[in-house]
Amino acid sequence: MEFKDLEIFQMVAEKGTISAAARELSYVQSNVTARIQKLEVELNTPLFNRHNRGMTLTPEGKKLMVYSEKILSLTNEMKKVIQSREEPAGKLEIGTVETVIHLPHILSAYNKKYQDVDLSLFSGVTEKLQADVLNHKLDGAFVTETELHPDLVAHDVFKEELVLISDTKETSLAELKNEPFLCFSEGCGYRARLERWYKDQNVKPQKVMEFGTLETILSSVTVGLGVTFVPKSAVTHLVERGLIQCHTLPQKYSEINTIFIRRSNAYLTSTIEKFIETIEVFNGEAV
């Protein structure tokens, strides 16, 4: 069994078809098919269910996926350790919640200083990003402060004030409790804060509407679809243009920290070490 066999196996599982996996890997389909068949012969078990819509993992395939992810993750980390040098280089995959308003400044400063680093950014909600860091899918992530898994360490980035926002129609805070709540999916730190406020007020939102991007949520608020809870810094431009109004909630709901998390047991390469240094420099300047 070769590492490449596991990489092909994972790609087929992700894409669901041989043809899609072959395109992604720039291989001919017959090569991908042969590799999968070779893997199934070696393990003496079918790894995929074949059907008209494509391929899905069998129970045995799902078991292999768990170990495959661990093996390839450790292999990648081994390469980083061996190839580590003083000057950062190679891949750096970072996750972030959508509302880190200062993130472009951090990324720009790092990218200009360490141009040999191939920096990739992935967005998501706090809970999902934390899982991706734990599972070695990301090198680190910017998330809202929450109870951390013991295998993670956190670095402070900055504090934020969250505000409840609505359209410009004159409405009291009590009336806003009955408006649809626009938010990201479960696992979002801002959503959790506002849900706690609702609960403490003995109120259940009449309707909860989930969206995939901050831009869509904010646009929906401006046209009166509902309310949302976001960092004040992320909506200053809308306030200045007279498109929304902000409502302040008590500090225990509105004050929140943005942190950068990474695995505590992962080798600290110069690439990630310099990224953390960049965060700390920005944090010091922002204070």
| Distance between the amino and carboxyl termini | 53 Å
The dominant shape is globular
Largest sheet: 7 strands, mixed
Computed CA radius of gyration, to the nearest angstrom: 23 Å
The overall strand count is 11
The portion of residues assigned to helices is 40-55%
Q: Please identify the top-level CATH class of the largest domain.
A: Alpha Beta
CATH homologous superfamily grouping of the largest domain: Periplasmic binding protein-like II
The computed structural class is alpha/beta
Second-tier CATH architecture of the largest domain: 3-Layer(aba) Sandwich
What's the helix-strand series? HHHEEHEHEHEEHEHEHEHEHEH
CATH topology of the largest domain: D-Maltodextrin-Binding Protein, domain 2
Q: Low-confidence runs (pLDDT<50, min 5 residues)?
A: none
Describe this structure in words.
This protein is an alpha/beta fold and 287 residues long. The protein has 3 domains: 80 residues, Orthogonal Bundle (Arc Repressor Mutant, subunit A); 106 residues, 3-Layer(aba) Sandwich (D-Maltodextrin-Binding Protein, domain 2); 97 residues, Periplasmic binding protein-like II (D-Maltodextrin-Binding Protein, domain 2, 3-Layer(aba) Sandwich). 46% of the residues lie in helices and 22% in strands. It has 12 helices and 11 strands. The strands form 3 sheets. Strands 3, 4, 5, 6, 9, 10 and 11 form a 7-stranded mixed beta sheet that branches. Strands 1-2 form a two-stranded antiparallel ribbon. Helix 1 crosses helix 2, helix 1 packs across helix 4 and helix 5 packs across helix 12. The radius of gyration is 23 Å and the shape is globular. 28% of the residues are buried.
